[in-house]
Amino acid sequence: MTDHPLPFRDPRLPFAARVDDLLGRLTLDERIAMLHQFAPAVERLGLGPFRTGQEALHGVAWMGGATVFPQAVGLGATWNEELVRRVGEAVGDEVRAKRATDDRVGLNVWAPTVNLLRHPLWGRGEEGYAEDPALTSAIAVAYTRGLRGDHPYYWRTAPVLKHWLAHNNETDRDTASSSVRPRVLHEYDLRAFRDAVRAGAVAGVMPAYNLVNGRPNHVSPLLGQHLRSWTDQSLVVCSDAGAPSNLVDSEHYFDTHEEATAASLKAGVDSFTDHGQDSSVMTGRIRGALEKGLLAEKDIDTAVRRLLALRFALGEFDPGLDPYAATDAFDTPGHRALAQEAAEQAVVLLENDGLLPLAPADGRTVAVVGLLADACKLDWYSGTLLHRSTPLDGIRERYGAENVLFAEGADRVRLRCADGWLRVPEGTAPTDGEARGAEGALDPALLAGRTDLPPLVCDDTATELAVVDWGDGVLTFRTGEGRYLSVADDGYVRASADEPGGWVVQETFRREAVEGHEDGHRLVHIGTGGYVSVAADGVKVAVAGEGIPAAGATVFTTETVERGVDAVARAAAAADTVIVVAGNDPHINGRETEDRTTLALPAQQESLWRAAHAANPRTALVLTSSYPYAVADAAAILPALVWTAHGGQAAGTALARVLAGDVSPAGRLPQTWYARDEDLPGLLDYDIIGSGQTYLYFDGTPLFPFGHGLAYTRFGYTDLAAEPAGDRVRVALTVTNEGAVAADEVAQVYVRAARAEDRDLPRRKLAGHRRVHLAPGAAERLTFDVPVEELGHWSVAHDRWTVEPGTYEILAGASSADVRLTTTVEIAGAPSGARPVVRHGLEAAGYDTQQDTEILDRTKEDGDAVAPAHDGRPGELLYRACDFGAGVGGLTLTASGGGSVVVEAGGERAETLVPDTGGPYAFRTVEAAFGPRGVHDLRVTLRGTVRLARIGFTPAGGAE
To answer: Given a cut of 70, is residue 701 above it in pLDDT?
Structure first.
């Protein structure tokens, strides 16, 4: 022992000095090794190993049992930051508690996901909070503050925001480019990250797999230009898994991995998540880049300094001072109660003609039916359940089991082949009772299916199976004991899975008709692509790792033992009231790697609610799902309609308490529910302004609007007042519970500019919200300080945030569409004026509107250019109110590729040919005569493969 520790061990010194000291003691190889997700120990200095990345989206994930809270989209539906902060605290405590007993658990948590829910068909919508940047920011700030803790120096956990930037598609997710115009960038996508970073509870971000404006997010200049400009705090950028290799392997953006790795590091990536726990590949690339002069040691030191700062903040070097080091709060009664509270607050009452609440009463029977009635579904980022409550469990507990009827609604079938019937052999029942992954796994994608059970056979005895069509013809088969047919690595089919799951789901199949067999069909296993074949040694879909082709498939016929609709109708007719529970399995038809194809409820589930309602008009539909559905018929026909995200371990208890009236529902929709698929733009259309996406710009009639949700009481809104006060607008209003039931209300305040639609501005924009609890007859005066900057927008004319003087409306109400009160405020100031194009020229991407164009990268390091989006079709750009002053004498185009550019303004027209420059990054200047004067709109038409970066203008006479 020594009384004079090394400086980096001295807690009396500030973290920055200690980081510098430790950095100076590390060898180059030790520093390079720290840049991989799994950094090894440095034993000579007493440093332990360190890993970035612990999934904690709505509870500790992938590391065995933990408290499972509602899905992130469900937390968003609570509109309650105080609740979400408490959830974050609980999750952070459980991370710490599990870390104390399992050093595989990391303290750098990869959560939350703040990608905006722009498009409801995005497969990962369950991971986000809302389609609105203000609500997303508010919930993210709350969750990260809970995860971080309140200590000024030491952090409970270190949250990393996912996924930077403009990432809402799983289709071609590592090769697709999101075309993001400056207004969408600044008003929408950046905003979701900015406020959480400014709040000081974020340790870093994770770039997304996709490209933005033609450039991969892992080499985005926006990391430096924006992310790190929002705070003086050190931020760590952790790559997504495998994304560094994608830069070469799938995106072909760089020729060599050394170039790609160097570019990522220089752009701001600090920790490389690639090749699992094998760090040698990435560290070898870094060394190679260094040897080739693509990197300097200072680039490595910058990243290592950030990583060390993170480790100091997590208390690694001061265990005696770390206030979170002894945390052991895990699966506590408080955490269980909080999981139930969160699930209750996430329930949204969409429609109600008086059927709900359904108070328990002697002799009143309830039929609980539907494919999710007895399910407690988890998603890819869930922990393993320690407690479990399905809707059936909760309703039986609340109403009395003797008063509850149940019918799942799955079709019960037997499968016949030429050799007999498909049979599950003895010995397939579970032996250990543990779910797949219950022990925890650093990478659950690597968990293998069971091979200790006998495969299926075909003989004289049939096994009855429950078959469910989850939509798009995706089928699951389950035995009466609750085991799903699944395929393990050896290619055999067994009844071995407790639930569908895994990175590649092994429990889903499709039917294929067979020509010449009127009732016959093949079964193809979706996960492997192999066809189900009956062999002497068992039923299989692959041999020696090769999928069995269609020619080798067994032809089956299906004998229906009982139709699900018949069982549901029978139960519905025998009950006083029916609760149909429908929705999705988060591992099927909409998840990471797979977008949805439709808003429609799967046909099998549609038929179940219709059968229930036909048998009993007192039927309510509960949608338990990760995303919205277009259920216009159900909304029009049924007396009650409820939505909740998958609610975690207490989902069933929470739902039953809401249905019974113990809790008045107060969840609110965090995204627009569209009425039909035709209301949606293309999945890859990121221009929310031009295509009218989200409640901000959608001009149609949604099925249910953003912010919608009913209660078991009525709320009145009165006395709205708004007054500018410096850089704020003080808004006040009174909310009164006018009914007889104590309940929560979510008061919402929106702003909009006068004549917003005429200027492509939001139809309304959320500026504040408050969830309040009111007793019957009680009233509360709510105040909101709305920053004046919230009234503004990004001016492409002046390349800055602008609040134009004039009249602004302040709207208050119960949703984005249910506006109860409106007032106005006047904002003084000088108008920003027309575009000063003579002085500053035009950046091509700074258009006001566009048609058939896309934004691409000007260079691999920085800058944007605009090109036609479709071969053979011209692209059009409009730049409004361009001020040409006393006149210009010509223009200069900066362009690459080859084709033509037509520029028109004020009756002047210039058509310029751009000779093929030899590549997309080989920009050249082309001049043309052009002579407008005064203020005019300017139109540009692009043809061919031309990429336009900029238009400059020469003043008439050569002087400004």
So the answer is: yes
Q: What is the pLDDT of residues 348-377, one digit of tens each?
A: 999 999 999 999 999 999 999 999 999 999
Distance CA 463, CA 415 (A): 8
- pLDDT, average across residues 857-883: 97
Three-state SS at 546: strand
Give dist(CA 394, CA 503) in Å, integer.
30
d(CA 899, CA 324): 62
Rounded alpha-carbon distances, angstroms, from residue 442 to 60, 432, 445, 500, 634: 12, 22, 9, 20, 42
Residue 746 pLDDT class (50, 70, 90 cuts):
very high
Residues 794, 797, 802: CA angle, nearest 5 degrees:
35
| Rounded mean pLDDT, 230-242 | 98
Distance between first and last Cα of the chain: 74
Name the residue among 878, 881, 891, 877 with its Cα closest to residue 947: 877
Q: What per-residue confidence (pLDDT) applies to 1?
A: 43
User: Within its chain, how far is the Cα of 721 from the centroid?
Assistant: 36
Q: Can you spell out the DSSP letters for 361-382?
A: -TT--EEEESTTTT-----TT-
**Predicted TM-score of the model (pTM):** 0.97
Angstrom CA distances, 214 to 290, 702, 854, stand at 27, 33, 9
Give me the residues paired with residue 622 across strands: 581, 642
Q: Report pLDDT for 430.
A: 53
CA distances in angstroms from 799 to 461, 835, 846, 847, listed in the order given: 74, 10, 8, 11
- Is 537 known to be catalytic? no
Residue 960 clears pLDDT 50, i.e. is over it: no
pLDDT in tens, 163-177: 999 999 999 999 999
Residues paired with residue 941 on neighbouring β-strands, in sequence order? 876, 902
Alpha helices in 102-254 (DSSP H): 133-148, 182-184, 190-198, 222-225, 243-249
Q: CA distances (Å), 765 to each of 181, 704, 761, in order? A: 19, 17, 9
**pLDDT averaged over the chain?**
96
What are the backbone angles phi and psi of residue 101, rounded to the nearest 5°? -115, -10
The Cα angle at residue 152 between residues 150 and 156, in degrees rounded to 5: 50
Instruction: Provide the residue type at 625 as one letter.
Output: S
Cα 744 to Cα 772, 776, 812, 821: the distances in Å are 5, 11, 16, 19
CA distances from 178 to 173, 174, 682, 858 (A): 10, 11, 12, 15
CA gap 824, 741 in Å, rounded: 33
Return the half-sphere exposure (C-beta side, CA atoms, 13 A cut-off) of residue 795. 19
CB neighbours of 645 closer than 8 A, spacing ≥ 6? 70, 71, 73, 74, 77, 126, 346, 624, 625, 626
Q: Report helix, strand or coil for 460.
A: coil
The pLDDT > 90 percentage for the chain reads 95
Return d(Cα 605, Cα 470) in angstroms, integer. Answer: 8
What digits encode the pLDDT tens for the residues 610-664?
Answer: 999 999 999 999 999 999 999 999 999 999 999 999 999 999 999 999 999 999 9
Catalytic residue among 132, 240, 374, 393: 240
Contacting residues for 132 by C-beta, under 8 A, at least 6 apart: 116, 670, 694, 695, 696, 706, 765, 766
- Give the containing element (helix H, strand E) for 412: strand 411-417
Q: Residue 441, Cβ neighbours under 10 Å: how many?
A: 15
Given the structure tokens 């250019």, which residue do they identify? 865
* Residue 950: CB atoms within 10 Å: 21
- Please give the distance of CA 34 from its chain centroid, rounded to a whole number: 29
Which residue type sits at 260?
A
* Cα 276 to the center of its chain, rounded Å: 23
Contacts of 341 (CB under 8 A, 6+ apart): 83
Residue 573 CA to residue 654 CA, distance in Å, equals 26
pLDDT band at 442 (very low <50, low <70, confident <90, very high): low
